[in-house]
Amino acid sequence: MSTIAFDAAAVETGTGQVLLHPLTLTLTQRRVAVIGANGSGKSTLLRLVDALQLPTAGRVHVDGLDTRAEPAAIRSRVGFVFTDPAAQLIMPTLREDVALSLRRSVPRRERAARAAGVLDRFGLTALADRSVFDLSAGERQLGALAVVLAVDPTVLVLDEPSTLLDLRNTLLLRRTLADLDQQVLLSTHDLDLAASCERVLVLEDGAVIADDAGPAAVAFYRRRCAEQLSPGAPGSPGSRSGGPG
Ligand SMILES: Nc1ncnc2c1ncn2[C@@H]1O[C@H](COP(=O)(O)OP(=O)(O)OP(=O)(O)O)[C@@H](O)[C@H]1O
């Protein structure tokens, strides 16, 4: 299993806004989820792992590789699935996109068969040659996952992978992730998916406020949200705190 290590890793904008407070932890579990409110810093944390975002302080390592010093080696190891499949799919069809992602690792004569196998695994064979613009959002999201998994990354990072999926495809995604050999780090608002992970980080305002096994962390997060919405809690609807006198 891989090791993702955050060593006082922090992210600040050029204007001094803190997106992620210094974070020190080591992730070695097979399935790790990051949950939290909109804007709490989940995507920022995930992007550090693939060197899409470099820490403005501290370090991030994947299997000993420093994301700052070796971004290319990091990216060949870490597959990143974006929330928006349009950010991932660049070819006219899924078949071409999967074949493109295989161009560095698979000889040309073997690419077609490999691409067909990957698409079949996700139930995408019937859609493989259709224009990606004619696919539904959920079909594109599954396609983007297939494109990234085709090259067999060591670590798979997924930013809200089930946002666009219907129940059947959500279950397909869950089963696919459960069966993978790779280490998986994902952010999600799907608390059932989070609860099925071995370890869950709960983020709030750019800081980890809980770090626990799936069900315990999800229960903590539910309580936290309920407390914040209860009458009189700071920031809750109807709360007068912070408002004009
Ligand atoms: N380059 C940037 N400059 C200023 N603020 C930024 C920048 N990038 C992100 N942010 C802000 O940082 C906060 C965290 O963003 P992030 O995308 O990590 O949140 P998130 O937890 O993934 O949210 P969501 O659940 O809505 O996807 C947000 O308030 C966002 O607006």
UniProtKB/TrEMBL annotation:
Is Translocase tagged as a keyword? no
Annotated keywords = ATP-binding, Nucleotide-binding, Transport
Q: Which GO terms describe its molecular function?
A: ATP binding; ATP hydrolysis activity; ATPase-coupled transmembrane transporter activity
Record-linked Pfam families = ABC_tran (PF00005)
In its UniProt entry, the species of origin is given as Tersicoccus phoenicis
Q: What's the family?
A: Belongs to the ABC transporter superfamily.
Record-given protein name = Cobalt ABC transporter ATP-binding protein
Which residue ranges does the record assign to the ABC transporter domain? Answer: 4-230
Q: What GO CC terms are in its UniProt record?
A: ATP-binding cassette (ABC) transporter complex
Q: Which PANTHER family match?
A: ENERGY-COUPLING FACTOR TRANSPORTER ATP-BINDING PROTEIN ECFA1, HEAVY METAL TRANSPORTER
